[in-house]
Amino acid sequence: MTVDYTLTIRTSAKLGAGTNSAISVVLVGTKGESKPYLLDKRFHNDFEAGAVDAYTVKAEDLGDLLLLRFLNAGGGVGGDWLLDSVTVTTTGKHWFFPYYRWVLGKSSAEVLEGTARLPQQVRHEREQVARNDLLLARQRMYPWRPAEATAGLPGALDISEARPLPKDELYRGLVDGSYEVVIAKTLAAIKLHMPVLSKAWNGLVDIFDFFKGLELPTLAKRWQDDAEFARQAVQGISPVHIQSITALPEGMPLQDSELRGLLSPGTTLEQALAGKRVFLLDFEILGDVPMFKKTDKAGVEERRWAPASRCLMYLDDTQQLRPIAIQLGRDPELDPVFTPNDSPHDWLAAKIYLRCSEGNTHQMVGHALRTHFIAEPFVMATMRNLPDPHPVYKLLRRHFRYTLAINDGARKGLLAEGGVFDDLIATGGPDQGHVFLGKKGYKAWTLADNKPRPDIERRGVLDPAVLPHYPYRDDSLLLWDAIEEYVGGVLGHFYTSDEELVRDTDMQRWWKDLTEHGMSVEKLPCAELKRVADLTDILTTVLFTVSVQHAAVNYLQYEHYAFVPNAPLCMRQAPPRKKGVLGEKDLDAMIPSKTQMLWQVAVGRALSSFGEDEEYLLHDGGWREDYFQEPELLAIRDRFHSRLRAQTEAVKARNAKSAVPYTVLQADRIPCGITV
């Protein structure tokens, strides 16, 4: 019996997604497969970017469709084709084939029918063969780097000239999407609008000249205020360090006499500590990290510093945080404790050094390591071991878009020897201190550290009664709870018992690949993948990390770092060891040079940019890529989006009453994954 199959084919709207190549299709079902059919309508330009094309194919009854095999004849410029999805209908039947990947010229691609199934639910041998073939091809496309190449760091994709980044992972494909392009454009804009400057350069004053063609960060008007300094600890670029303490840190000598007028009337330091009104920022991790040191051909030595500094803050009677003491080292004999009662230059210098310490820790540990690089093994394990119809692949894929590309770009452009970080940050340079710092951070890290509630509780600031104004906490916990319910709902639909997970050969292979090549099992919350609760915990943490946590530590970089005196990424002088000797010229000599400032502005702008094709957790009009079609799963997704809408409204309501709004964790401004 001959059947008419109507294929509705959606080509991606991305620039360059369409093709002029001849495209043919073979329909494969439970009763066999059709002959190849050329998809070509007369007087019509088929498969243009953003187009939806419909074709009718006549074939013998093929039963339930299992896959579509597309053949791309290729040839010429623009031969590759970016296929979004295909819907096939015939009398009384409907199939959906999501793909969202390239069909390369002079090649074929099998697009599997989109019903989500665990491997034990596969009903036809031909479907199982297609799933296996897909994974064999992916394992060739996504090889792990040799273990020695990532020693001390998470596993990563092996990329070389002979084996480049798969086209499915290429970065955006848009002119302005690449952060290298944004850096170059920002540098050009600064140079275009800057006046011709004399050799005399005062970074504390002349920094404003950088912003004649750019937006001036709002904190530029208040960066020297103690209230602004404290605000950045709870809603700045790195809001994950503040902790409640009830005793002074070891080696930090501080007397009540030094805090005269800084605490509430009649309150001693001991009482403030006991009353949980004192908080600590501590960058001890920098203690043994090599700092930039280089001697040029003329014998002139250049050095940079980011000390293992720490800061005490006090919650005053108006429930506002204020910094009250900063120590730029750990030696009580050599490293004095500075307070607001010291000279204005001493106190400003102490705050600037503290922010430099925070910046180096943030860039390599809080940002690069704990979001970008720990995400990569999960991307790799997923692409290598889960076929398109697997529910976990469907759950994760949209959140992994561009991550491999941006990580490769960061390694080559920022972190590699001779990269931007060598020119810019204190821990860069010949001794690769920033890599040392990243490895040190990874050695102490486990995946559980990326769960916000236990981390915030460990730091003693979970209770709003202890720290009333902590927007990062309040926003991130609502988002965590929504993601956890979403992930748990999807997994619970497929895994009705732990035994179902144990029987899932795809996920067991995923786990083995992850723990053998991506990260050691000690970094993960369980030794074996046997409980659905453990998988829910792991995947919730991963999705929270690549979306919420990355947004928190990334998208304020221009606001935080671009006005360089607020948070320089290197200091050009050693921290002061004596009080009362600094003047304004000394501060100018300490902060980054004009060239270093220019780089910091440009990098901050590039890393804070959103792409034209950005997809957000709460996306206007819904997510562009549909992976699940089952009504029960669409209901779970809709519940997730409903919770995100409520979170967005809560953020807006709080910000309406806030002097400095915190919008970076508003669900409709959080990209689904690490895309920059």
From TrEMBL:
The keyword Lipid metabolism applies. Gene3D superfamilies: 3.10.450.60, Catalase core domain (2.40.180.10), Lipoxygenase-1, Domain 5 (1.20.245.10). Residues 3-117 form the PLAT domain. Residues 116-676 form the Lipoxygenase domain. Keywords: Lipid metabolism, Metal-binding, Oxidoreductase. PROSITE patterns: LIPOXYGENASE_3, PLAT. The keyword Cell inner membrane does not apply. It comes from the Bacteria. InterPro entries: LipOase, LipOase_C, LipOase_C_sf, PLAT/LH2_dom, PLAT/LH2_dom_sf. Pfam families: Lipoxygenase, PLAT. This is Lipoxygenase. It comes from Corallococcus caeni.
